[in-house]
Amino acid sequence: MRLWSPDPAQLDRAALVSGWREGLLAQAVLLGRTKGYTRHPQLERFRELDEPATGVITRLAGLADEADRRGYRFDRTRLAGVADETLRMTVTDGQLALEYQHLLAKCDQRAPEWAARLRTEPARPHPVFEVVEGPVASWERAVLP
Question: Of these four, 42, 84, 99, 140, which has the most CB atoms within 10 Å of its CB?
Answer without folding.
Answer: 99
